[in-house]
Amino acid sequence: MKSLIERLYKKQTLSSEELHVLLENCDDYHLNLINKLAQTVAQTHFGKKIFVRGLIEIGNCCHNNCYYCGIRSGNKTLERYRLSEEDILDCCYNGYQSGFRTFVLQSGEDPFMTDEKITAIVSAIRRNFPDVAITLSLGEKEAGSYKKFYEAGATRYLLRHETYNQAHYNMLHPCSMSLKKRLECLYELKEIGYQTGTGIMVGSPFQTITHLVEDILFIKEFCPEMIGIGPFLPHHQTPFADKPSGTLKQTLLLLSVFRLMHPYALIPATTALATLAADGRKKGILAGANVVMPNLSPPVQRKKYELYDHKACTGAEAAEGLSLLEKELQQIGYTISKDRGDYNDLTRKQKNVS
User: Fold this and answer.
1) pLDDT tens, 253-273?
2) How much is the pTM?
3) Beta strands in 121-272 (DSSP E)
4) What distance in Å separates the CA atoms of residue 220 and residue 177, rounded to the nearest whole number?
5) Do residues 296 and 55 make contact, with C-beta atoms less than 8 angstroms apart?
6) Separation CA 44–CA 175 (nearest Å)
7) Is the confidence at residue 352, as pLDDT, over 70?
8) Whole-number Å distance between alpha carbons of 289 and 282
9) Is the dihedral of CA 46, 248, 52, 157 positive or negative?
10) Pairing of β 49-52 and β 291-292
11) CA distance readout (Å), 74 to 100, 138, 161, 215
């Protein structure tokens, strides 16, 4: 096990068979080893700085009916909302005053939010805050739509593929959805010029080690600028309400695997990780994560963006709790960076140093 981990650290890759052995057999001792090596790699490239992104959940309406998601169209008990352009700009203003220089606009796949509406919102943010990075996480769109958003000023796009295995994908989604379409969207985003992010749920229902190895190898080949992974957490209004959560151990292991394979990637310690364990965010950072995303959404709406039960959205998870987050990071020797932290700039600086 130790030799596999050291080879991953030095070579940034392993065979599928070796990855399977690592994921299947990593005990606490070797988890600590790989976490420390991933932490070393992250500190080599980013120091002890953690990038903060201001998360704005612009609406919880979604026409998809994914079996794991609390805002699925089949959840008839959820109170739906959409933020207006004015609401979104207010969130950006508050975030900008607090020092945020990246805004992440996230929502379900909502047909009401047309290309024209999204383009107008992105254009307004770019016009009012010309020095910020604008990240979108709005689901599957046509290539032409992605291009409009990019030309309006969006710079990054997050679209987790969730699983690279077709049979597993079918277990998590209705037949109206397509893994082929999801992957096409990812490649289109890269082709347009976005800094592109993808990722998985760790411990999602029916997931196997073989599925995870396929995900790791796909992400290695795709080489995203951002990698978003977090534990599966069930929601009581879904078919998977009684399924167990993903584990902290497996999530931390995969965070470290991705950091060792993608030294320059922007990898968040997710809200789901902070929800799973009180010290989940800190442990994620110590396993190689370098991004956190405090919530800038209006407090009255936050609990309505309920992807899973008991979502953490106050305290250090909230933008107004930034001082709490700073203290939490200081406890493990890290500081907040409010820089945009663009992937291309980070890699360019490192190459110049080398």
Assistant:
1) 999 999 999 999 999 999 999
2) 0.95
3) 133-137, 156-158, 195-202, 226-231
4) 24
5) yes
6) 44
7) no
8) 9
9) positive
10) parallel
11) 35, 19, 21, 28
